[in-house]
Write a structure and sequence with these properties.
Helix content is about 35%, strand content about 30%. By secondary structure, the protein is of the alpha+beta class. The strands form 2 sheets. Strands 5, 6, 7, 8, 9, 13, 14 and 15 form an 8-stranded mixed β-sheet that branches. Strands 1, 2, 3, 4, 10, 11 and 12 form a 7-stranded mixed β-sheet that branches. α2 packs antiparallel against α3 and α2 crosses α4. The longest helix is centred in the N-terminal third of the chain and has 46 residues. The protein is elongated. This is Serpin B6. One of its GO terms (molecular function) is serine-type endopeptidase inhibitor activity. InterPro entries: Serpin_CS, Serpin_dom, Serpin_fam, Serpin_sf, Serpin_sf_1, Serpin_sf_2. Its main location: cytoplasm.
Length: about 425
């Protein structure tokens, strides 16, 4: 993920000054309305406060007791996206529309310390899998950045600032950034920033790279892989290499959502891949459309709870696949309400410059799934059933969603949609 900041164009001054009297009258009227609303709201709150105080305290105590460390850590990760601005760059208007996009909670005091703990959990050196999350900043050498900002991101996010010459050597700077990303992702993410993404107006580039490689806890035998048809829709199919095995896996079916869910553990069992497979449809849709409309993070957590999934003898057929996708998220974020970040934000918590705006948000992802396991970059012996028992089947021969989750923290690292073979 890359965030690019540039200097904003200065607006032209109007030739004639607007009339100030109507503005002052409007301001006074707005102030009176606001004061009246505040007084009424305070009176209502005062009347209800006494009778609800005991009830509220009891509810909060109950919530505190039932909240697990994993849930707190997951909430902290989500809140970081909002409070990165309110705690490090206090004078920013950006959180107002980040709230609209991300719907964060407001009960986490030390977001950055929690996120730092999350990074430590994910970047374990003795893990049976390779998982690297790295952050870096590239700043224009002639610009000044707030020391508190640099100190906080280094402390909590292990992110260093590299000074580069965007003004006269923008392309060399782009190549440098791409080389760092390629190294962090073991060569899987190349040419992240295309030509022209950074130029002489670029001031700051924030880069996040994540790399994952893990082997299945129960590997697929390559000799069992067969040629099969993958149904893109009701009428069209493509050939795929279909991996096959029969063993015990965590499995559940959600009838109200018309979806089956399979969990494939990686070695060490700290990470899992969840496959969300829609039921077959008779019309021209793939079933993904309805699933994506229905699916929320809360439902994902509910549906994948250990007590909701049962160890089931199951025949699994999963295509071998490799995907690489690039996205420019600027238009997506603007459509979600973040237009001010690209035109009219206060980033004075990062730099004393008054004309800093977000210019680009670039994301590139890679994932490969084969018999051994999974390689991704933002990437026990089976019990055979008796012959008279017909096992449950999970045949992923049509479009599905997949999620790679870090189980101790319940953190979803990768989300993907597989719709068609290459």
């Amino acid at each position: 993920m890359v965030l690019c900041f540039t200097e904003a164009e200065q607006p032209k001054q109007a030739e004639t000054q607007p009339e100030k009297q109507p503005e002052k009258q409007a301001e006074k009227q707005t102030e009176k309305q606001t004061e009246n609303q505040a007084e009424k709201q305070t009176e209502k709150q005062t009347e209800k406060q006494a009778e609800k105080q005991t009830e509220t305290q009891t509810e909060k105590q109950t919530q505190t007791r039932t909240q697990t460390p994993a849930q707190t850590l997951m909430q902290s990760q989500m809140q970081t996206r909002r409070q990165l601005r309110t705690q490090i760059q206090q004078r920013s208007r950006l959180p107002q529309y980040l709230v609209k996009c991300l719907k964060p909670e407001d009960d986490e005091d030390d977001v950055h310390a929690s996120f730092s703990k999350l990074l430590s959990e994910l970047n374990k050196k003795d893990a049976p899998f390779a998982l690297t999350i790295a952050n870096r900043l590239y700043g224009e050498q002639t610009y000044k950045f707030v020391e508190d900002f640099l100190s906080e991101i280094k402390k909590h996010y292990k992110a260093e600032l590299d000074s580069v010459d965007f003004q006269t050597k923008a392309n060399d700077s782009r190549v440098l950034i791409n080389s760092w990303v390629e190294k962090q992702t073991q060569g899987k993410i190349q040419h992240l920033l295309g030509e022209g993404v950074v130029d002489a107006s670029s001031v700051l580039v924030l880069v996040n790279a994540i790399y994952f490689k893990g082997n299945w806890d129960k590997k697929f035998k390559e000799a069992s892989t067969v040629d099969a048809k993958f149904r893109i829709n009701k009428n069209d199919t493509k050939s795929v290499k279909m991996m096959c095995q029969t063993s015990k896996f965590s499995f559940t079916s959600i009838p109200e959502a018309n979806v089956k869910i399979l969990e494939l553990l990686y070695e060490g069992k700290e990470l899992s891949m969840f496959i969300f497979l829609p039921d077959g449809t008779e019309d021209d849709t793939t079933g993904l459309e309805m699933l994506e409309r229905e699916l929320t993070y809360e439902k994902f957590v509910e549906w994948t709870r250990p007590d909701k999934m049962a160890q089931t003898e199951i025949e699994v057929r999963l295509p071998r696949f490799k995907m690489e996708e690039s996205y420019n998220l600027k238009s997506v974020l603007i459509s979600m309400g973040m237009e001010d970040a690209f035109t009219n934000s206060d980033f004075s918590g990062m730099s004393p410059a008054s004309n800093l705006v977000l210019s680009q948000v670039v994301h590139k992802a890679f994932v490969e799934v084969n018999e051994e396991g999974t390689e991704a970059a933002a990437s026990t012996a089976g019990i055979v059933a008796d012959c008279e028992i017909i096992p449950q089947t999970f045949i992923a021969d049509h479009p599905f969603l997949f999620f790679i989750r870090h189980n101790p923290t319940r953190t979803v690292l990768f989300i993907g949609r597989y719709c068609s073979p290459e």
